[in-house]
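Dear colleague,

Thank you for sharing your sequence with our group. We've completed the structure prediction you requested, and as agreed, I am returning the results in plain text so they can be pasted directly into your records. Please verify that the sequence below matches your submission; if there's any discrepancy, let me know and we will rerun it promptly.
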Amino acid sequence: MKLSDFVTCISGPNLKEQKRLIDEEHYVLYTSENLVEDLSKGYKKPPKPKATKYLLSAGDLVINLMTNTSTIVALDNDGKLMSQRIMKLVPNGQIDPWFLCFLLNESIDVKKQEYKKMEGTVIRRVTARLIKNLEIDLPRLEKQKQIGQSYRALEKKIKDNQDFIKQMQLSTIAMLNNYVKEV
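Please find the predicted structure tokens below.
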């Protein structure tokens, strides 16, 4: 079945509307950096819909059409404005959001479909139509939840390990700099 059978897709505002919402309504834009950070936070609670379809809620599932990365919006990005590059995917209850993140980010079958239909010669990107038309075979919901939970835990663990490595690097460099001063 097509992904559009399981989710409703909502594209971000065009540039003119985006500029108006930022200038007049003073909304803050949801960036690619926010998306990457949100993936490692592993937010789990369901979204609470906002007054406008372009505002994100913590718990919304989004995909960046330029980087082809999906995530669940974390609490600290609640209320931010979708950009034109972001598409919100609203599951209809037949698909687990974190399982869908796994499929969109990691599934070999999905990557093959995307690569065959990506647009652009220099910068290849996915389109809203491509995402909506992805052929998806769904396991039973309980198995989806297990896979989604494992993927969520993996992303959080990767971030924890990256933070640990960065801290070790900084500590080691500081220690070596102190050692050089002693010589």
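Summary note from our side: The chain has one domain: 3-182.

Kind regards,
the structure core
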